[in-house]
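HOLO CASE FILE
Compound: adenosine-5'-diphosphate
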Amino acid sequence: MPRFEQRVLLGSLLCALPGVMVLVLMALFGTPGTLQIWGLVVLVVIGTALLARWQFRRIMFPLYTLAGLLEALREGDYSLRGVQGGALGDVVYDINALADRLQKERLEFEESSHLLGKTLAALDSAVFVFDDASRLRLLNPAGQRLLDAARSQLFGRSAEELGLATLLQGPSSVLLTHAFPGQQGRFDVRHAALRSNGRGGTLLVINDVGRVLREEERQAWQRLLRVLGHEVNNSLAPIQSMAGTLASLMARDALPADWREDFRGGLDVIAHRAAALTRFLSSYSKLARLPPPQRRDVELAGLIEKTARLEQRLPVRIESGEDLHVHADTDQLEQALINLLRNAVEAMLPGAGTVTIRWTRDGEHAVIDVEDEGVGLPPSDNLFVPFFTTKPGGSGIGLALVRQIAEAHDGGVMLVARETGIGARARLWLPLASEAH
Ligand code: ADP
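Model generated. Tokens follow.
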């Protein structure tokens, strides 16, 4: 039997002791006179009262301690602990363990709310939390900047008063152009329902996407200007110097004997550089002005064979797959395949190796793989970025154009290192023509 219960039982029995002792004495020595009986009654009453008080204290003291501990927990003071091993043994142990756990959880809660607060403050996105009556209950500094007002003027105001009600009523995720008091531009607006303390609420997150777009646009322009500058310089500098040389040759009184050769050589350089510049500009305009694909049913095997024949520098092996038809613009698809085959061959030049091209069906798509045995991929995430090239005479437009073509056809393209460790694999996928579905 647990110690506390033993105590209660023993104490209760002890309280009955004076009365029992008087009865035993009376049984042994016979009934005393009336006066003595009253004396014994007084003694029994006093004895029982003293014992009851002693018993009461023994029982109530640990219970008071327990009540004190529980009250402290209820008040949120988790630092108090009861002395273990007393009358209530396990109960105090459990309450101490409960206090430990509550203290730990409060610490974790405080740490995570601190972290949440810091994260919200560091976010570029504006975050707003509205309660079930659509009143603002939480916002971060980015939100405050967006609404351009002091926090105290914003808290407790309704979404309507803050001019955010229309955003909350719209779709849960939308891109829109909007003018907020603190900023205007293009924003990604998202909202979601929340539940807190059993009550509903709404979370609203607003991201300024205009800045990201502008930044990307700026980088693209920089890249374009760098490449354009490089290409134009590469061509104009020799043209200019050659023109200078020819002009000074012409200015001489007596032309040297081999002036014809010099002139022809000089004009060749000029023509060559001008042609390179034209080629570059035409490949650039292909990328910038890709027309929408004129799709029709294209037999894949025939198109791949025709394209592979165009590549003369290294052998191209065709591993024929099943008879597939894609829904594509023949010219654009051919251009995409030419670019992939050219990259595969150029990865092996100068040298040898074979390009393998095969195709398979994957659900509703035709998947075309172009594998090479070349140098492998350069360590860069920018292979598909327009004008990225690692080749001395490269334009960096090939892969960007393939991606544009693939995406305009609701397909895709990727470039991965081959599992064999040698060379790369370009994978192009396109939707199959509807009859083949
Ligand atoms: P370009 O061929 O003019 O360089 P691309 O856009 O076609 O432009 O290719 C970009 C870069 O991607 C290449 O310069 C090259 O570094 C890399 N690349 C593309 N295909 C392959 C491949 N099959 N193997 C290795 N690297 C490749």
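CASE NOTES: The mean pLDDT is 87. The chain has four domains: 1-122, 124-211, 215-288, 296-431.
CLOSED: yes
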